[in-house]
Amino acid sequence: MKHLAALYKKELLENVLPFWINHSKDEQHGGFFTCLDRAGNVFDTDKFMWLQGREVWMFAMLYDKVTQNPQWKEMALHGAAFMEKHGRDAQGNWYFSLAQNGQPLIQPYNIFSDCFAALGFGALYKIDPKPEYYRIAKETFDNILQRRNNPKGIYTKNVPGTRNLKNFALPMILCNLSLELEHILGSEKVNEFIPEVLEEVMNVFYQKDTGLVLENVYEDGSFSDSFEGRLINPGHAIEAMWFIMDLGVRLKDETLIQRAVKIGLDMLEYGWDKQYGGILYFMDIKNQPPQQLEWDQKLWWVHMETLVFLAKGWQLTGNEACKAWFEKVHAYTWEHFKDNEHPEWFGYLNRRGEPLLELKGGKWKGCFHVPRALYQVWQALEKAPAFAEQPVVA
Amino acid sequence: MKHLAALYKKELLENVLPFWINHSKDEQHGGFFTCLDRAGNVFDTDKFMWLQGREVWMFAMLYDKVTQNPQWKEMALHGAAFMEKHGRDAQGNWYFSLAQNGQPLIQPYNIFSDCFAALGFGALYKIDPKPEYYRIAKETFDNILQRRNNPKGIYTKNVPGTRNLKNFALPMILCNLSLELEHILGSEKVNEFIPEVLEEVMNVFYQKDTGLVLENVYEDGSFSDSFEGRLINPGHAIEAMWFIMDLGVRLKDETLIQRAVKIGLDMLEYGWDKQYGGILYFMDIKNQPPQQLEWDQKLWWVHMETLVFLAKGWQLTGNEACKAWFEKVHAYTWEHFKDNEHPEWFGYLNRRGEPLLELKGGKWKGCFHVPRALYQVWQALEKAPAFAEQPVVA
């Protein structure tokens, strides 16, 4: 495992981060290009706020946690300056995307733009404690809480009252965001907040009968027999389970960690493609045809997040199934997603594991899941044996 | 070609229509189920207005054009009654979808619901001339024209002014809709209307330099180097070209027909998958990665509409390339999309031509492209030799 930890560290520092430093900076207009082809050439200049916030977070977090590399701090500041100047509408909502020059392009219909902006500015405040960064992170977080029961606002197409569903993504991300922003929100507020999001993830979206996590349920928590209600996204639930393990460490709650490991392993077993290997993107809990035509594709983030889940599960519990699955998913991921001829990793494979798109970054893939997972797995595997001697929890 | 005409006719009358008659009628709440699995079982009960309107049109049109089968008229009336009762909001816009019982589910953000409602009620008025059907078709068509410059209305997420694009789909469908509604709108109105939509399709979205048709251009017709601006949908453009050929026949304009044949053949050559056969779903004119993850899939409607285009092209011009391509696309389509074990045809194949979803109907596939194409090809191939002796145009 030490050897593997070094492999993940090397891939992060020598392959993936240099790719983003070399190719994603827009020196002319500020902010980051994320639409980068196989070799790193820019193929589209739109600026997606999700990905701007995530890249700011990535470099600030690594500067804070790994080493005070001035280039990393400069990257974070570069992205944040562009976001601060152009990213929000008059009400402080973050646009979904901007044109290269910062002109707003797509309205703030998507609350995850706000989540990743808060994440980015929160991390930046840790390495450069300007009151402005604190204020943006705090105000954005407060705005997310205000919008959370109607996150799409005026852009929702649902007729109210007919099928009021709630979605798994927001409580799931709030599990992670509340920990990441503890220095902004204060521990007391986070302590108040945690039980509520935990309840949502572990008791409302998690289904006792099947052992699976649904993406959408009725507001009262019951099952909706509709395309949205039947939807399963194995990678999403597995990612959530490592957020829950982090909460378990924070709360020193071993039972919670054990439950998260069990749920994540069940989702992985369910989502694993028995025919071609890899983890399927979307499934239907009643085994009906999903509406997502990309259901059978293999996505980078699904596999990266699963590696984090398994490495943490192994680190924190010593569960042998985590280790065995880690080896299997590691082999699949490095064989199919890593590009041996050019830097960074492929994002989208077809069911057989062949590249579907050769891009290294796009509208949804930026400097986030690959480097975050490489960092998290490196850390978890380095700590794993120490934990075996001295458990974090219990 | 006579033998082929009989094959298409038989498939329509003995396989495809009975499938929808037997499985799509909701006897309890009215309207049509369209989410039908491989064998015809209902797997989801939502009612999508696009598909309700299309199924009404299909049965009414066949009753009008093929034979006065009372079962077909009954199907059309059954769907129309449900649409009339539940389908519109207070302003007369057609909802995108309803729950099984008719409760509105998704708001009228999509103007194509209105297009297919107008199509359906227009055809119904031909076989059952109730003033109510006339009124609904007419008012819906007028509403489409009113909304056409901002078809998504309040549901649009684009910030006005930054990148004002217009989309190919609406002018393209209006080419077809104006002919289908000539008995409602009057010939004078249609004559006024045709030059405008023809100009859009044949001179604005069609690009002289590349010979290809774009899905989105700036309002002034210029090229937008963005995901939307670079997008090519070969099947969409090919379908448009048979609408244009119908307009050519209506206008007795042989040059227009010849141009449509040339453009359609160029799009087909461009969109044909040289590696695995079949026609790709989405492409990027600059050969960059498209944002649609389903770009490499093979969709039923793309292939069905291409067969119509080729059969009409052959019928109207005797172009040998149309015949050769017809044989090639016919072979691919019947081999991969037709289900030899159960009725109706598959809708979604992966790049290799294997079924991606086994459904026969869903949120977007209903009683429309397969039966319409079987009817159109049957008619075109039956007429083809007659045309060779006595050209329709010139």
Automatic annotation (TrEMBL), chains A, B:
Stored CDD domains: AGE (cd00249)
Pfam families: GlcNAc_2-epim
GO biological processes: carbohydrate metabolic process
Domain of life where this protein originates: Bacteria
GO terms for MF: isomerase activity
InterPro entries xref list: 6-hairpin_glycosidase_sf, 6hp_glycosidase-like_sf, AGE/CE, AGE_dom
Family the UniProt entry places it in: Belongs to the N-acylglucosamine 2-epimerase family.
PANTHER family, per the entry: N-ACYLGLUCOSAMINE-2-EPIMERASE
Protein name in the entry: N-acylglucosamine 2-epimerase
The organism of origin for this protein: Chitinophaga cymbidii
Taxonomic lineage of the native organism: Bacteria, Pseudomonadati, Bacteroidota, Chitinophagia, Chitinophagales
